[in-house]
Amino acid sequence: MHLFRSPYIPSTTYRFFVGAQLVFLCGLALHAAFIFLFAYFAVYELVLFNILSVLIFSTCLYVNYKGMHTIGLWLAFFEATTHAALCVYFIGWDSGFAVYMLLVAPLVFLYTKMPVLQKAFALIFPAVLYISMHRYSLTVDVVYHIEESTLYFIKYFNMVSTMSILAYLSFVYSNAAATSEAQLQAASLELEKMATTDTLTNLLNRRALNDEIKREIARHNRMGTELVFALGDIDNFKEINDQNGHLNGDIILKKVAQTMTDNFRRGDLIGRWGGEEFLVLLVGANLKQAEAAAEMVRLEIENSDIDLDGQPISITITFGLCAYNKQLTIDECLLHADKGLYEGKAAGKNRVVSVKPEARLKVVN
Q1: Where do the domains of the chain lie?
Q2: Rounded to whole angstroms, how far apart are CA atoms 231 and 344?
């Protein structure tokens, strides 16, 4: 049995398991040492109880390993409170054994599965007992008198031991919190990516692209940044999809998306607009520059054979372009780009067609 690895522990309580195991192991080792300490001072009542304590912490290690954390916690709770009370009664408050009850609180909070009422009892009872034992020690003499310098040495040892275990539990807790926070951040980023990214192509989806376009339009209105919309549509995609199957169609879409990502500039916005249609907003480019960029992508796609089930297939794409200006709305600019795309398809496909609108087109919803 590996004390710090167990097949019985789910991920939800693994951190508690590791933290508790070390505390129980320290408890076992300390009480084994206390057997010899109390035997040296001939306090045989505490010798017997510390033999029981060793058995209790051995049981704690075992039940915690088996995933029965609540049993282990309550056994440790019983041992810590009873041992503290007996030590105060037999050798006095100045022995410092009462401080071990402080270890109950971090263990209770580290174990998230314990009911609230049980946690409250596990915290309130030791506090009441701690105060009561101190008040008792002020009025009642001890059963066994130990030399004051030796008693203080024992007290300092107990304080250092408790502080060391508390520091370890704090590390476990803070590490668990940091891990949980990192997992939440990763999950949040993943959810954000899922909400804004087309799962097939890893491009921006239509909703996210719309949001980004609005931001660029706002910047254009402030700074006059040149913008060009490029609407691209894979030629004959329906026929290719029908002949080769939808899985191969997905391969084509991913290949085209990757080609666009590799060849348009980093600052350009690229998204899947729907089906086999892609929309690119070229930021800081005039119409001539946008035509050159779209032509380069068109040639790259035309010259790249895609392997489908061992058979190379050539695909082409047609682009319709329209430069944005303040006289147009976004929808009107997209309509002009779509008009250029339609003209390119009608003229034989596999080409780049720009539209310079002289009049505003009617937006049809």
Answers
A1: 11-190, 206-354
A2: 11
Give the CA angle between residues 65, 69, 70 to the nearest 5°. Answer: 155
Confidence of residue 1 (pLDDT cuts 50, 70, 90): low
Q: Which residues pair with 353 in a beta bridge?
A: 320
Is residue 364's pLDDT more than 60?
Answer: no
Helices assigned H by DSSP within the chain = 14-40, 44-65, 69-91, 104-110, 116-139, 148-196, 206-223, 237-244, 246-263, 287-302, 330-346
Residues sharing a CB contact under 8 Å with residue 327, sequence separation 6 or more, in sequence order: 360
Q: In whole angstroms, how large is the CA radius of gyration of the chain? A: 37
Tokens of 72: 């282990």
Domain 206-354 has CATH 3.30.70.270: yes
The model's pLDDT over 27-38, given as tens digits with 9 standing for 90+, comes to 999 999 999 999
pLDDT of residue 362: 37
Percent of the residues in the chain that have a pLDDT greater than 90, as a whole number: 67
Instruction: Taking the CA atoms of 262, 265, 266 and 267 in sequence, report the sign of the dihedral they define.
Output: negative
**Nearby residues of 117 by Cβ (< 8 Å), 6 or more positions away:** none
Mean pLDDT, range 250-258, rounded to an integer: 94
Alpha carbons 357 and 322: distance in angstroms, whole number:
8
Residue 219 and residue 223: Cα distance in Å, rounded? 6
Question: Among candidates 294, 306, 283, 303, which has minimal Cα distance to 340?
Answer: 294
Q: Which residue has tokens 């915690």?
A: 64
For residue 339, what are its two tokens? 């008009």
Catalytic residues: 276
Tokens of 108: 């209770």
- Close Cβ partners of 231 (under 8 Å, ≥ 6 residues apart): 273, 277, 278, 279, 280, 319, 320, 321, 334, 337, 338, 340, 341
pLDDT tens figures, 257-283: 999 999 999 899 999 999 999 999 999
Task: Tell me how many degrees the CA angle 112-118-124 measures, rounded to the nearest 5.
Answer: 110
Task: Give yes or no for a contact between 231 and 281, defined as CB atoms under 8 angstroms apart.
Answer: no
More confident call, 297 vs 171: 297
Q: Mean pLDDT, to the nearest integer, of 311-320?
A: 92
